[in-house]
Design goal:
With about 325 residues, the chain is of the alpha/beta class. It is built from twelve helices and eleven strands. Bound molecules: Fe4 H S5 and zinc ion. The site of Fe4 H S5 has 8 residues, from α6.
Length: about 325
């Protein structure tokens, strides 16, 4: 294999783009595509936005934080320790190693320090699946971090595989609340910062190669609660198509963006925005889902102490 750019020995074959590249040119190719996505979709403004990257210790989020720094954006990581035995200790360690190796700040919020309960125990109290409660906690804590510390943008490491699986599932289920939404960014509103996904058009494999070539050490294991997630089935189905027809995944997402208007007339009216009567943050109810968790575990008195729970790793 010959590198398309320098004609030296190629080490990466990208069938979706019909090119082979050496390590050096792959890194350039990857970083250019991220920059192009950020600029084309107006995700982050250089010298204006301050970005918090939601890091989990995995390859996607750590690589995203790394590449944003390389591209000259102001960014820090924010990590939530969910108290999951083994998994949380290892993922926290990976974030700490990353922060020290690349001199990029990562802040941690520990759920067990805050609530004296880990995510499993909280989910038992709520009588809901761990992932559903975890989703509420992560969304709230990450946004709260941004507001408390003056970050304007929250970036997540969702990649092309994640986004294509979500779109596929929304189409199969005719999920009208989600079809018609632009997946790369969500604008800010009422105490909620803008959310962006700069990796949404690069594949999981490309991110893994980028992490490897840049010596980014990450946790290989997935969270134990992710096993059996329905999204995995959609990913498998799309990968099967991609295998026989390289590039279909990217084409699927780009064509969706081009044709997004056809869904809009069909989208249901969103519920009305409200301020939570306890914390003042965005909700469609009287009390937001996070404060509802605090009430259920008998900890609503600690909502105002939030800022003290973020520590630098
Ligand atoms: S961290 Fe949380 Fe995920 Fe683990 S408990 Fe579920 S939602 S699987 S991305
Ligand atoms: Zn609230």
């Amino acid at each position: 294999m010959i590198c398309r750019i320098c004609k030296g020995k190629a080490s990466v074959e990208l069938r979706a783009h019909n090119i082979s590249l050496c390590s050096k040119d792959f890194i350039i190719f990857f970083e250019r595509r991220i920059l192009k996505t950020i600029e084309k979709f107006n995700l982050i403004k250089k010298n204006e936005d301050k970005t918090a990257v939601a890091v989990s210790g995995g390859k996607d989020s750590l690589s995203l934080l790394y590449v944003l720094k390389i591209l000259g954006y102001e960014a820090s990581g924010v990590y939530i320790n969910l108290g999951i035995p083994d998994y949380s200790e290892i993922s926290k360690e990976k974030c700490k190693i990353f922060s020290e190796r690349f001199d990029i700040p990562v802040y941690m919020f520990s759920l067990t320090d805050y609530l004296r309960k880990n995510i499993y125990e909280v989910s038992r109290f709520m009588k809901r699946p761990a992932c559903s409660v975890c989703g509420n906690v992560k969304r709230y804590v990450m946004n709260r971090f941004c507001i408390e510390y003056g970050y304007t943008t929250l970036a997540t490491g969702h990649n092309l595989d994640d986004e294509a699986a979500t779109l596929f599932s929304n189409l199969m289920n005719f999920n009208r609340n989600h079809l018609g939404k632009e997946f790369l960014s969500l604008p800010s509103k009422l105490n909620t910062v803008k959310k962006v996904k700069p990796f949404a058009l690069v594949s999981e494999r490309e991110v893994a190669i980028y992490a490897l070539l840049n010596n980014i050490d990450y946790i290989y294991d997935e969270c134990p609660y992710s096993k059996g997630a329905t999204s995995l089935k959609y990913k498998e189905a799309i990968n099967f198509i991609e295998e026989g027809s390289p590039g279909s995944k990217l084409k699927f997402m780009k064509n969706y963006l081009k044709n997004i208007d056809i869904f809009n007339s069909d989208a249901k009216k969103p519920k009305e925005d409200n301020s939570c009567s306890l914390c003042g943050f965005l909700t469609t109810q009287n009390v937001c889902s996070f404060c509802n968790i605090l009430i259920r575990v008998g900890a609503e008195n600690i909502i105002s102490d939030f800022r003290d729970y973020f520590v630098k790793l």
